[in-house]
Amino acid sequence: MAGTQWQAVDDYIADHLIPVDEAMGAVLRNNEVQGLPPIDVSPAQGKMLHLFALMIGAKRILEVGTLGGYSTIWLARALPDDGRLVTLELEHHHAIVASENFERIRVSEKIDIRVGKAIDSLKAMTDEAPFDLTFIDADKQSNVAYVQEAIRLSRPGATIIVDNVVREGEILDAASTDERVQGTRALFDFIAREPRLEATAIQTVGGKGWDGFALAVVR
Ligand code: SAH
Ligand code: DHB
Ligand code: MG
């Protein structure tokens, strides 16, 4: 079955290119023990986010959707000593678990986690901007609003990445009653018409199934 091979190839990639990291393993185990859903990015995707941040020399990073902070840690580890990351999370319990994980990994001094509806935190944000990189990975129905805020809070030339824009090809279903699918379809329509964004989307397969991410540069 293709899905089994996708996982096996992800394991092969990780075995070769992502050094075993006991602390990161402990983060994922803590998330599981604390009952968080296993919907973090994969190790290969986490490292991709890390590399994107290194490629652009990001000093200020914004994340929407923390969960247990697995993607947050990959991003924060790419920051220089004076770099900062703001991550937004709705669920108090997720934020507590993420904070524990940030302490464990010793990146907590670079990370500011804000609990509440991400849209409220985004609308209130000014001092921390402009950001060099934004990773959007929360409630998919709000993706257009999050990208609009991300553009507002970006420096010219900044990168915006949106997770889960393919969802096993469900985005093709114009009649879908799933608001996450409709939110992602609205995102594609919005980006297509937004002159401040230069964008593409890349399909991915692996341990997280068939999915993909959108990648945009703010003019
Ligand atoms: N980026 C994480 C996974 C995030 S999962 C990783 O890869 O490790 C999506 C997260 O978004 C969940 O923790 C969920 O509670 C949060 N979320 C959902 N709706 C939200 C909202 N309106 N505002 C902020 N966070 C929200
Ligand atoms: C879901 C959310 C995610 O951010 C993800 O990467 C995978 C799944 C979900 O809501 O099911
Ligand atoms: Mg995701």
Q: Main beta sheet: strand number and arrangement?
A: 7 strands, mixed
| Number of strand elements | 7
- Write down the overall geometry: globular
SSE succession: HHHEHEHEHEHEHEE
User: How many helices does DSSP assign?
Assistant: 8
State the distance separating the first and last CA atoms.
42 Å
What percentage of amino acids are in beta strands?
Answer: 15-25%
Decide which structural class fits the backbone.
alpha/beta
Query: What order do the strands of the largest sheet run in, or round the barrel if closed?
Result: 3-2-1-4-5-7-6
Contiguous uncertain segments of 5+ residues: none
Helix content: 40-55%
Nearest-angstrom radius of gyration? 17 Å
Mean pLDDT: 97
Ions, cofactors, ligands: which are bound? Answer: S-adenosyl-L-homocysteine, 3,4-dihydroxybenzoic acid, magnesium ion
Question: What does the model show?
Answer:
This protein is an alpha/beta fold and 219 residues long. The protein is 43% helix and 22% strand. It has helices at 2-17, 22-33, 43-55, 70-76, 92-105, 118-124, 143-152, 179-193, and strands spanning 60-64, 84-89, 111-115, 131-136, 154-163, 197-204, 211-218. A seven-stranded mixed sheet has the order 3-2-1-4-5-7-6, sandwiched between helices. Helix 2 runs antiparallel to helix 5 (92-105), helix 3 packs parallel to helix 4 (70-76) and helix 6 runs parallel beside helix 7 (143-152). The radius of gyration is 17 Å and the shape is globular. It starts with a helix and ends with a strand. It binds S-adenosyl-L-homocysteine, 3,4-dihydroxybenzoic acid and magnesium ion (MG). Magnesium ion binds at residues 39, 137, 163-164.
